[in-house]
Amino acid sequence: MSPKTQSLNYSWTLPSGQLVSGDTLALIKTTSAGRFILTVSNIDNYCQDTMSFDVRDIRSIPMVDAGPDRVLTCKDNTVNLSGIVGPSNSITFDWRDSSGNSILPSNQLQPDVNVKGWYYLKVLDTSNHCESIDSVYVDENRKVPRSLITANDTVFACNDNSLVLDGAGSDSGPGILMSWSTVDGSILSGQTTMKLTIGSHGHIHAYGEGYN
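Above: the chain sequence. Below: its structure as tokens.
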């Protein structure tokens, strides 16, 4: 296009059908796609020229899913982040923690982590530079249940055939299992209950185990 002079008038027909004209509109900005028609008129000799061109919108937000929240437990010292991204050869991704540090290995879409906190999966479509992000929270439940044994008497007398050990002072509730074991004594009953009946002396161990 020739250098603009004051004798030229520019008229733009926008995709919406709206007409915009004036002597300062040689350049306009748009945020929408569609067909644009430019008519340039010389107001001195009434000559004009028209051209049109199409603006395509290739913006498409890439799909990203950081997966469900996870919980670190005494059993599971590490958890797997189940990241999913949109099917495209132009997709790149990056896992980061709440401090902005990359999760290694950087090419692993479903990495293992062992620290409580927020994790962010960022996806970039290199074909249109659109990006999106999703997050997942890793919680922690590593409370160790307490085992506490009480007994009225821990010594076998000559007339004793059994003794009862009571673990009622131990932590209890949903998700907690009580168990007893011995390597040199004898267990008569209650091996998985709060009260254990033993038939001989020995070393008795009580275990409180949580589902976590």
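The chain has a mean pLDDT of 83.
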